[in-house]
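Appendix C reproduces, verbatim, an entry submitted by the partner laboratory led by Prof. M.T., so that reviewers can inspect both the input and the predicted structure.
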Amino acid sequence: MSRSLSLGLVVAGLALLFLGMQASESFSSDLSRFFTNSPTDKAIWLWLGGVLALVTGLFGVARERMRTA
């Protein structure tokens, strides 16, 4: 995996985590949390996608760094 792709995944992961936080604080998520005690599916999928992209990107950056060292 190239370094630029890895950094792109890190940035995309952070963006998805930010969007997930915004979605979890929305009115529909508050309503969902009131009835089901959990945030909306959209917020959960954004969090999962963000964590997956962030971990993959960080792994790629670490791998490239070890290869060049």
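DSSP finds three helices and no strands in the chain. Additional entries are available on request from the coordinating office.
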